[in-house]
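Figure S7 source data.
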Amino acid sequence: MFLQRITLFLIFITCLFFPTIRGKLHSHANGKQWLPMSRIWLPPSPSPEVVSPNANGPFVFNVKSFGAVGDGVSDDTEAFKLAWDAACHAEESGTLFVPKGHIFMIQSTTFTGPCNSKLTFKVDGTIWPPDGPDSWPLSSRKRQWLVFYRINGMLMQGSGLIDGRGEKWWNLSYKSHKGANGAKQLGPGDRPVAIRFFESSNLRVEGLKIKNSPKFHFRFDECQNVHVEKLIIKSPALSPNTDGIHIENTTNVNIHNSVISNGDDCVSVGAGCYNVDIRNITCGPSHGISIGSLGNYNSRACVSNITVSDSIIKHSDNGVRIKTWQGGRGAVSKVVFNNIQMDTVRNPIIIDQYYCPSKNCHNQSYAVSVSNVSYSNIKGTYDARSPPMRFACSDSVPCTNLTLSEVELLPAAHSQGKILTNPFCWKVYGTVQTLTTPHVLCLLEGNQLTLKPRDVVWC
Ligand SMILES: *[C@@H]1O[C@H](CO)[C@@H](O)[C@H](O)[C@H]1NC(C)=O
Ligand SMILES: *[C@@H]1O[C@H](CO)[C@@H](O)[C@H](O)[C@H]1NC(C)=O
Ligand SMILES: *[C@@H]1O[C@H](CO)[C@@H](O)[C@H](O)[C@H]1NC(C)=O
Ligand SMILES: *[C@@H]1O[C@H](CO)[C@@H](O)[C@H](O)[C@H]1NC(C)=O
Ligand SMILES: *[C@@H]1O[C@H](CO)[C@@H](O)[C@H](O)[C@H]1NC(C)=O
Ligand SMILES: *[C@@H]1O[C@H](CO)[C@@H](O)[C@H](O)[C@H]1NC(C)=O
Ligand SMILES: *[C@@H]1O[C@H](CO)[C@@H](O)[C@H](O)[C@H]1NC(C)=O
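Tokens for the predicted 2-acetamido-2-deoxy-beta-D-glucopyranose complex:
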């Protein structure tokens, strides 16, 4: 047995380095292309009952064939890793398949590429993590659950559900978890992102349902060419930091045709994002669609060519928002908000260059600049406790070249108390191209910087 394993291992190593031999070996393997590899780690005896009709192809790797139990309790992490390795190293596009009718419990895991060719991660069943911080091993304090790393070309899709089981994480308070008796515990700062794509490219995520993430539902950082399509993302309005889709240092992104309700931004665009098209999103209850926050800890942030269009934002704290910290560097420019329906939104249009959630920030002269932002065809109702438009720009790096056209915002019918209708403007330059409701009379003309241009860090 031992010798046999050694022999197989040598064959495997040889195969890794000599693809031609691998091809030959596979052609003798009668359609079980992953046989030589999987033998080494675990001898799966594919049980016929788990093979569903459309999950049969030679390059489909059903996690149940790799030992996944799918009872929602057993730890299926190893089976997923084996299925991933098989799919990733398949000769042709491999599919990791998660069958329906089961709940698979997976620990925090990184699925690493590069893979041989384009990969499909097909979730028809349910995937969830261990239930809450007490059942997460302390060693997995990595603030992330499922990570896809260094993948070039992957489709994630399916009719299934990704359930982040965030309820117990949301309840953690900073107070009760601050090192009681020096005992290590996972605290609110450790809340994991549900799905992270990192340093990957040519990704498509389509049709999945995902709910109750402990933190962001999706995070893409350092990625290129990302297409997100027809997702349903759902968490309670009071779940903290449960952004739907957060992107950072990521370029050429489409986020289309999705329905998101959660306790933070539906989509948030962080530093280093270019060429982003967000379209046909139904967002709310939530905190709206945001660019930012940018420039915290005096960091440099560049964001450009972002379009948000054909969307509905309802029962949300904000509609379309740009938020930057004081003291940052860099620029947000070329942003288009077009054709957005607002339904009872507290701040439908907002730029805040004084972003400071703790309310305890001192004024600084540097700021991430905001320019070339256009708002067109933005209509609907706002919760009149706040002004319908708020442009709070920096004293030294004002907002420049804002354009408004066809903006019509009315107080929501049930608005109570003092109704605020006047837009708020501070140091904002721009033009109103068509008459707006309410009138915006507070935009300044021209483009003024009080900092010397050489002190402003453009991008
Ligand atoms: C979270 O806290 C709320 C209020 O204290 C409580 O009602 C709820 O049951 C808790 N949820 C979980 C999953 O612990
Ligand atoms: C984005 O890229 C910049 C510059 O390479 C880096 O300093 C920053 O840490 C990155 N941010 C993230 C979240 O990866
Ligand atoms: C917008 O997205 C919704 C939800 O996915 C979809 O049903 C609808 O067909 C999309 N509309 C267009 C014009 O694509
Ligand atoms: C702006 O982004 C869109 C994708 O949203 C892209 O098609 C277009 O080429 C970009 N424009 C520039 C100047 O890069
Ligand atoms: C910071 O500047 C703004 C705008 O000039 C001003 O309204 C605010 O009072 C200042 N805050 C502090 C803490 O000085
Ligand atoms: C103002 O921004 C618009 C796009 O929103 C752009 O077409 C125009 O050239 C800009 N004008 C200046 C003076 O920068
Ligand atoms: C605003 O847009 C105009 C026209 O495209 C461009 O010349 C200018 O550099 C842009 N301003 C910034 C700060 O990006």
